Amino acid sequence: MMKLSRFLNSNRNALGKATDVPRHPCKWFPRCLASLNTMSCYATKTEKFADRVFAPYSVFKGKAALSVEPVLPTFSKFGSGNLKVDRRGSMMLTFLPAIGERKYDHEKRQKFALSATEVGSLLSMGPKDSCEFFHDPSMLSSNAGQVRKNLSIKPHSDGSGYFISLSVANNILKTAERFTVPVTTAEFTVLKTACSFALPHIMGWDRLTTPVPGTLASKLSKVDPQMPDLEWDK
Amino acid sequence: MMKLSRFLNSNRNALGKATDVPRHPCKWFPRCLASLNTMSCYATKTEKFADRVFAPYSVFKGKAALSVEPVLPTFSKFGSGNLKVDRRGSMMLTFLPAIGERKYDHEKRQKFALSATEVGSLLSMGPKDSCEFFHDPSMLSSNAGQVRKNLSIKPHSDGSGYFISLSVANNILKTAERFTVPVTTAEFTVLKTACSFALPHIMGWDRLTTPVPGTLASKLSKVDPQMPDLEWDK
Amino acid sequence: MMKLSRFLNSNRNALGKATDVPRHPCKWFPRCLASLNTMSCYATKTEKFADRVFAPYSVFKGKAALSVEPVLPTFSKFGSGNLKVDRRGSMMLTFLPAIGERKYDHEKRQKFALSATEVGSLLSMGPKDSCEFFHDPSMLSSNAGQVRKNLSIKPHSDGSGYFISLSVANNILKTAERFTVPVTTAEFTVLKTACSFALPHIMGWDRLTTPVPGTLASKLSKVDPQMPDLEWDK
Amino acid sequence: MMKLSRFLNSNRNALGKATDVPRHPCKWFPRCLASLNTMSCYATKTEKFADRVFAPYSVFKGKAALSVEPVLPTFSKFGSGNLKVDRRGSMMLTFLPAIGERKYDHEKRQKFALSATEVGSLLSMGPKDSCEFFHDPSMLSSNAGQVRKNLSIKPHSDGSGYFISLSVANNILKTAERFTVPVTTAEFTVLKTACSFALPHIMGWDRLTTPVPGTLASKLSKVDPQMPDLEWDK
């Protein structure tokens, strides 16, 4: 099985290699990359001359493409120059339907943002495990329940990978869409390894721990002497 | 089991998602976040204009909330500009009792600081393992034994996660408190992944290895030629 | 088995230790290191005074040597100061045939660049798994199929490591070469651990997440407030 | 077993906690810390005003103490501002014999430097595995075989940890020493996690991949367009 899956994977890699070799892109690549990054372009509307780096990990398959990239948390100031996480980061999954051989329709893309805990579910999956998440963009608002998104990850019967599916039911637009992207064990291992790297960053813990001189880390070291008492302090 | 646990987890995520979506906070969130960071606010009393970053990973459950964040080590100078770890870092666990739906009492919070080795115990836990730690804040002082803290991590019978419990017995105040927070496999995986990331930082090893130009790392490279002989040197 | 393999490994280490102790190099070491880095020297032709760092992980065995090092992605600017990955990074494997005891012929070296997904295959290998990759440098050009490269990783029958083999069939030069390097479990674990570290970097994700002040990361945090809506935005 | 070992571990932690709580050090701590860092102090003789950071992970047990810390590689320049690894880094193990309760004799310390591949052996160990390494400081010199060092790691019969032993036979001084330090599963997990973090750094790969603006990483991105052809280039 393993061996077979690897052959399938490597053969797939040999054919065009669109999956991970942008230097041999599908002939619509610039357009579809742009599409993948519309989210980011959108964001840049809010600031001038911002540097954004677009480095999605993309899996192009027959019926749809899946692109994954981390979104960093935002911080807000409070007190005497302190920062707290304002909005958690996430792993943003973008699905595009295929509309021809290696052609994907960015107008019909759908997104799903995995929270830190949902990333934890993905990281803890074994070869036979499934997981499923439900999001409601209007949760806690008057439109609650009008749009429902459901992401599921289900193993291939032969253990050679997973099916990653997104369903979006929109009662306002009266639309229902479904995307399914089969990912190999190799592709899923890239996702797990990259998500494991990204998790502390989307949690904002890299800010706590990377000792860039003159920033919090070096300053923290000055204040920590108080720390241990605080385990006991009320 | 796995599959079931994931459904439970994702459903739980769907309900309010207070666990990991601060942008849909519980309605007492600002107050309870403040409470979680009193430790840090305390510390800032000792320095002016310090940048502190607050990015706890918080799990809000029915009877209590658990918040986890790394505390960096402190360094002191000695010799000709050398630094040594003055106080090890730790993973600080903060428990808050619930006093209503998604309302937590920060006045009654209790803290428990995991050492590097205790983090190692947590990292090595399999789905059926338990671990337990005992701390005495007054250890080696005349009050030894007056306050005793006991943290235990026990697996759910169905393997779907763990119960994390803190007991605090204070013979001086004549109080005894107990907090129990059930965590899912997904939440525990976040804790393990984040603790694995944080461990070298609370040990101070990021200072040894991150080559910030002009600091120790680049200087180390000048002195290391002596090093190998030193394996044999007395 | 495990124990035996470790003895074999440690004994092998004890003999000259060329594998991982450059300070006791084979007597042709400077020349063979130069050879390993010709790729890089080539590159430096295109820029003056570039800093390049050469830190390959090299395994010197009886019939061939294998050297592995990451190659970082390239970025190109677009829009208002945005960056996108222009060419993915890779793990570059370089094989050199032995032409005498601890002497390797850098004129006859062959290279094989593992993509992110191929690195994922390597990372997901268990002690009994194999994997195989096929590359065609002329793919999609008129010379397609003229040069074919085949990298295979096969486990030792006793589970004590793997054979890493590269075959290169060149129909233009009418040449066929094959290199086989046996690697111990310890050496393969170094490769896996180092590839796991390198993967986010060859994907360009370190650029997304390392918060170097004043660069994208800190700017991203300004624009992210728009982000979450975008999960739902069309 | 697991559970038992954890109790033993946590109880051990509760008693003085010298292992990982320097803020409750053994009463000889400053002296024994100094001893652990003589290697480093030695090195500083060769440069003025160097910043060194001392952050060993130390395990203090009844008959001996073991202290572990990474040693970074050294680089030398060549060509037009290029750097190559001059001497690989290592994980330095320092053993000190006990000469009383929590008192350790730094005069009698012995060191053993694990290479990257030896770290790979340690990282790949399962709960029942052993490994053993042999070093000869005088290897390839006229004194070859005069001093022999043997490091062994053997599992506890109950799977609750490992015995780490160093034997040093010195035919010149006519001495033979042996140190054995029992480490718990928790302590070994700290070693594995910290070694896994340190491995890319002792290999020098952090220099290749950390994109400090204006250094190699950003420059590399300019030259990499040549790269892929080089997979095929002779």
TrEMBL record, chains A, B, C, D:
**Pfam families per the UniProt record, alphabetical:** Whirly
Q: Which InterPro entries match?
A: ssDNA-bd_transcriptional_reg, Whirly
Q: Which domain of life is it from?
A: Eukaryota
State one molecular function term (GO).
single-stranded DNA binding
The alphabetical list of record keywords is: Transit peptide
Q: Could you mention a single GO BP entry for this protein? A: regulation of DNA-templated transcription
Q: Which residues form the signal peptide?
A: none
What PANTHER family does its record include? SINGLE-STRANDED DNA-BINDING PROTEIN WHY2, MITOCHONDRIAL (PTHR31745)
Similarity comment text for this entry: Belongs to the Whirly family.
Would you tell me the protein name for this molecule?
WHY domain class transcription factor
